[in-house]
Design a protein that fits this description.
Blueprint lengths: L3 E5 L4 H12 L5 E4 L4 H11 L6 E4 L2 E4 L3 H9 L1
Parallel strand pairs: 1-2
Antiparallel strand pairs: 1-3, 3-4
């Protein structure tokens, strides 16, 4: 299984949808709250070029937003 990391905030609706998706599919994911962790927020922006969340890393692929088809494809590869 590929390493999955998600940068999110507690108030982000799409972050909660992504987290639920990972839980329902038994996918282990490391979640960083960029609202509280400014170093992780900076890291997220460096990796994605985005300030919006969620930013999901699956292996080396960066996915901005809860793009379920793209997430599923990245998990297969």
């Amino acid at each position: 299984m590929k390493k999955v990391t998600m940068y999110s905030t507690v108030t982000c609706h799409f972050c909660h949808l992504a987290e639920d998706y990972f839980k329902e599919n038994n996918i282990e994911v490391k979640i960083f709250d960029v609202g509280k962790d400014h170093d992780k927020a900076r890291e997220m922006m460096e990796k994605s070029g985005q300030m919006g969340v969620p930013v999901i890393l699956i292996g080396n692929e960066v996915i901005v937003g809860f793009d379920k088809p793209r997430i599923e494809e990245a998990l297969k590869e």
